[in-house]
Each structure stands twice: as C-alpha cells, then as structure tokens.
Amino acid sequence: MGDRLKTIFIETYGCQMNFSDSEIVGSILSKNEYALTTDITDADCILINTCAIRDNAEQRIRKRLKELKAMRRNKPWLKVGVLGCMAERLKEQLMNEEDIVDLVVGPDAYRALPELLSQVEAGSKAANVLLSEEETYAEIDPVRLGSNGISAFISIMRGCENFCSYCVVPYTRGRERSRDPETIVNEAKRLFERGYKEITLLGQNVNSYRWDCDGGKVDFPELVKRVAEINPKLRVRYSTSHPKDLSDKLLEVMATYPNVCKSIHLPVQSGSNRMLKLMNRKYTVEWYKDRIEAIRRYMPDCAITTDVIAGFCGEEVEDHLQTLELFSWVGYDYAFMFKYSMRPNTYAHKYLKDDVSEEEKTRRLEEIIALQGKLSLESYRKDVGKTFEVLIEGTSKRNKEQLFGRNSQNKVLVFNGNGYKPGDYVMVKVLDCTSATLIGEIVEN
Ligand code: SAH
Ligand code: SF4
Ligand code: F3S
To answer: How far apart are alpha carbons 91 and 106 in whole angstroms?
Structure first.
C-alpha cells in the first residue's frame, strides 16, 4: 500500500478548452481532499493536460515527460498523470511508451480521477479514456487556476462532429454535446458576483450550441443574449465560430449588446475552394466572404481574426496564392498560422497524401506570416487617434506605473495608471502602436 498523494500540480498545454478543463479537474480534486499547488517542487503528483493537434504539440509533451523523469530521480514517490487529448489519442499505449506515466485519463473521464488516483496510490497504473455522449461537467464549479480574477472561461459544449479532414479533435474529444444553459448563466452570475468582469464562452463550434427543453430551445444567439443580460458591466466573448454556420441572428445579438465584445475568431484554413473541399470545411471562399461582409454590415468596428493551415495535402502554389489573396481582402487583425501536420487516423491520413515538402510548407507559412504582420500593423495603425473603453487586467511587466487591458476588439492597450486598478473600466485614447499593442492615455470624462 503506497502513501496518499496529497499535493497535486496541474500543467496545461493546448487550447482554451484544455485550460478550462484543468479548472474542472482542479475542482474535482479539491472536493476530494487533494491540495492543488502552484509550486511544482511541492507536488507529489504532477498531472499534465495535453494537446494532440499537431505533431510538435505532442513532441513538446514527450520532452516534458523526460524532464519529469529527471525530477523523479530526486523524488522517487513522485507520480505523473497524462490528461487530455494526447491521453485520449494514445490511450494505454502512452504508459508503455513512456515509463514515467502512471495515469492516463481522457477528457470525458475526469470524474473518475479520485478513484484512479487511489489505484495509483496503491501502487498500480491506472487509465480511463472512455468518451461520453453526455458528460458536460455541467454542475461542477471550476476552481480558477492562474486567474487574474477578472476574466474567466466557461465551457458551454464539448466535442466536435465536423470532421475536418486534417483534424484530430473529433477523435480526442468525441461527440458534440451542449451544456444546460441554466448552469452556464448561473456560473457566469457567480463569477460576476465574485468580481469577474469578462467571460469567454468556449466550444469547438459554438454556432452549433443547442439545448432543447420544455420551455423551448436555446441556440447560441439566445445563450449569448442571456449571458449578456446578466449585467452591462460583464463583458462576453466566445470562441470558436465555424464559418459554415455563423448566422445573422448571432451578429444581430452581438450588435445589440454593447457588452458582447466586437471581435470574431473565424478560422478560414485556406483561401482555395479546392483545398476547403479536401479539408471538408463545408463552405466556399465566396460563402466566407459573404460572412465577412455580414459582420462588417452589423458591426463596422468588429475585429476579425483567423486560423490558417499552410501546405495541406495536394496544395499547389496557386492555392497558396489564393490564401494570401483572401488574407489581403479580409485584412485580418490577427491570425494563428500553422504548417499542416499529418495526424494519425484522420481522413487526410487515410485517404490523402501529405505531399508538400517540409521546406515548401515553411516557405508558404513564412509568406503568410509576413503578409499578416503587415495587415496587423495596418489594423493597429488605424486605431491611432481613436478612444476605446478598456477593461484593465493588470500592471505592465515592463513599467510598474503602467497598466494594460483590452478593448472590445480584444486588442491590448498599455497606458499610465492614474490610480486605476485591475477590474476597472477606463476610456483610453490611442497615441501610438506596434503591430501587437496600442499605446495610449486615459481620458477622464
Ligand atoms: N474548432 C476550431 C479549431 C480548433 S484547432 C475551429 O474549427 O475553428 C485550432 C486550429 O489548429 C485549427 O483552426 C487549425 O487551423 C489548426 N489545426 C488543426 N489541425 C491541424 C493539423 N493537423 N495541422 C496543422 N494545423 C491544424
Ligand atoms: Fe477540428 Fe474542424 Fe472540429 Fe475545429 S471544427 S475542432 S478544425 S474538426
Ligand atoms: Fe484543444 Fe489540442 Fe485538444 S487544441 S481540443 S487540446 S488537441
């Protein structure tokens, strides 16, 4: 019989959903008399919540596991668990490949953690990677890990059934399911009462949020409305929208409520119809442009950001040029840009050929990055002279006299504090910028 593991450290990689999941894990553990620590050297168990989206995300975790192995040399009782998408993708295989791993738990099995940890305490290895069609952790009040006390994530749904041909998420997170809207609104209310000023509603494709009950159905625009109505001083953001079903109804709700932030993340992936078809994205460039025009019609001041993949299977230079063209046409405020990384067992892995060379992928990616650098700078320059309402998030790392915060468009502003503090709303006039920050001063009115 081993010792009870008392102190647990959680380390998180990947997307916002994963960070949100770690907070659910934290809550489940705290309720079961485990203490969470923010100091890894204190821990007798380290849980790493992993990402499998690209090969380099997994390589990073493998490297981290090697480091933990070195740590265990000075602390033989240390236990290591792998949670999240890589756990789900590799399952028990992970324990065989990495002897440091004692515990493997998939994203839908976190309620089993206390039970699994007691098996580990008793000296055996443990795993649960069952995916669920119902689990939404709806009534679990997440502990807020590493939070600034001002902004928080709320998961509103889990899983994904879009099966974009390159993507591992439908396999690691299972069927799509929505969470009871009442529990979402209550969680947002509790956060606001505790002083939080901004919440981000999370899902892989929030547009397909749907809850049917006796009182009728709640779709995503209706959910946003209910959350926005909690208080005008509570900012509402969301991520991510799939372009195929970004509705006018949602844009209308966004335009109606000033506290629903004017910023839309609309991953395009490619500017070529041929690629979009191979990617199984279910929209065309023309459809995407129509959605951008609709956003601009409802909210001329709305920021638009995107994700893009360079060098997907069969991509020709012509397709790549079309991506650059679309980027210029939209004029994104910001973009997350990736090289295609083949993921085992996806449609693309089984039926398409990863035939763009590594050098060519890099070259195309660098071209997109260079173009986006210019577009971001243009977008930030346009803000010079404008005045924005800013929610203050903290003190600038470089200069203690300065504060930083975000405007509704999600751009970061830095300015002199004038006695204000994190959590306050202030009006800031932009005087200057870089391609990632607006520099301004508070205007009192
Ligand atoms: N659900 C979100 C995105 C989740 S993954 C959506 O559909 O918009 C975040 C981004 O990672 C994707 O938008 C895509 O650009 C990128 N991505 C996903 N799989 C990838 C792969 N195999 N190789 C490279 N990038 C990938
Ligand atoms: Fe992956 Fe597509 Fe689902 Fe996004 S919508 S998580 S890219 S399958
Ligand atoms: Fe997120 Fe990575 Fe999983 S992006 S859903 S943690 S594969």
So the answer is: 8
- If you classify domain 387-442 with CATH, what class do you get? mainly beta
Listed residue (118, 126, 123, 155) closest to 32, CA to CA: 118
**pLDDT of the residue at 147:** 87
For a substitution probing ligand 2, which of 53, 167, 241, 347 has the most ligand atoms within 8 Å of its CB? 167
DSSP helix/strand/coil, 29:
helix
| Sheet hosting strand 198-202, strand order edge to edge | 151-155, 198-202, 235-239
Please give the distance, rounded to the nearest whole angstrom, from the Cα atom of residue 231 to the centre of ligand 2.
32
Mean pLDDT (the chain) is 96
Q: Is the pLDDT of residue 2 over 70?
A: no
Q: Is the pLDDT of residue 1 over 60?
A: no
The two tokens of residue 427 are: 């009006």
Report the relative pairing of strands 425-433 and 387-395 from DSSP bridges.
antiparallel
Q: Which DSSP category does 260 fall into?
A: B
CATH superfamily of 151-381: tm_1862 like domain (3.80.30.20)
- How is domain 2-128 classified at the architecture level of CATH? 3-Layer(aba) Sandwich (3.40)
How does DSSP classify residue 134? S
Q: Is 15 in the pocket of ligand 3 (CB under 6 A)?
A: yes
CA distance 16 to 18: 5
Is residue 392 within 8 A of residue 420, CB to CB? The reply is: yes
Does the pTM exceed 0.90? yes
DSSP states of 68-92: HHHHHHT-TT-EEEEEHHHHHHHTT
